[in-house]
Amino acid sequence: MNIKYLALVIGLLTVVNISFAKKRTYKAHVHGDGKFNLVVDKKNIEVEFEIPADSIVGFEHKPKTKQQKNNLKLAMLKLKNVNEIILLPKKGNCKAKDVRVETALTGENKIHDGHEHDESHNDKISNETHSEFNIIYKIKCEAPKHLRSITLSIFKHFPRLQQLKGQAVTNNGQFSQQLNLKNNKFSLSE
Ligand SMILES: [Zn+2]
């Protein structure tokens, strides 16, 4: 194969790779941004978080160093403790029924080979894998009429988490709100 031809082929491959990566960028999460969903159905409440692993532990691969392993362990403990993550009004008389914290970081084969990073500080197209934490809390509240708001205390535990796009569906309607460390009270009434 002649060198000029080879250079052309490599050039084409690079162009294809770059446009492929760009097209897929929209799928990649933004580090620091997460999602928060809440459904209130009479006494039953389901709270769900979807957060980039980077915003929880600072990395998105399986832990390699001792410190990373410790960080992950600590994060799992915090996330499994509902009271560390969300605050419900006492009058609601609420109790957690089920807690699920899922992430590819702890599993063996769960890391989905994913969407490429296309951040401006990357001058090469990397195949870095993204991972997330999916957290679901199922809660039962004996007096749901007192649930006029819910406070998220998750931000103070994970400073890399900058904001959550919150959405709620309750028996009173639908609500959406952008939440962060300072604005951490999600209003569930007009
Ligand atoms: Zn990521």
Description:
The protein is an alpha+beta fold and 190 residues long. It has one domain (3-187). It is built from five helices and nine strands, in the order αββαααββββαβββ. The strands form two sheets. The chain has a six-stranded mixed beta sheet with strand order 4-5-2-1-7-8. Strand 1 and strand 2 form a beta hairpin. The radius of gyration is 21 Å and the shape is globular. The N and C termini lie far apart (71 Å). Mean pLDDT is 83; it is low at 16-26 and 108-126. Zinc ion binds next to loops.
| Overall residue-averaged pLDDT value | 83
Q: What oligomeric state is this?
A: single chain
Number of strands: 9
Strand percent estimate: 25-35%
Provide the structure class. alpha+beta
Q: Tell me the major beta sheet.
A: 6 strands, mixed
Keywords for this entry:
190 residues; globular; binds zinc ion; alpha+beta; six-stranded mixed beta sheet; three-stranded antiparallel beta sheet; 5 helices
What's the arrangement of secondary structure elements?
Elements: H1 3-24, E1 33-41, E2 44-52, H2 53-57, H3 66-80, H4 82-85, E3 86-87, E4 94-103, E5 132-141, E6 149-152, H5 154-157, E7 163-170, E8 173-179, E9 185-187
Parallel strand pairs: 1-7
Antiparallel strand pairs: 1-2, 2-5, 3-6, 4-5, 6-9, 7-8
Bound molecules: zinc ion.
Residues 29, 31, 52, 54, 60, 130 line the site of zinc ion.
At a glance:
The protein has about 190 residues and is of the alpha+beta class. Helix content is about 25%, strand content about 35%. The chain has one domain.
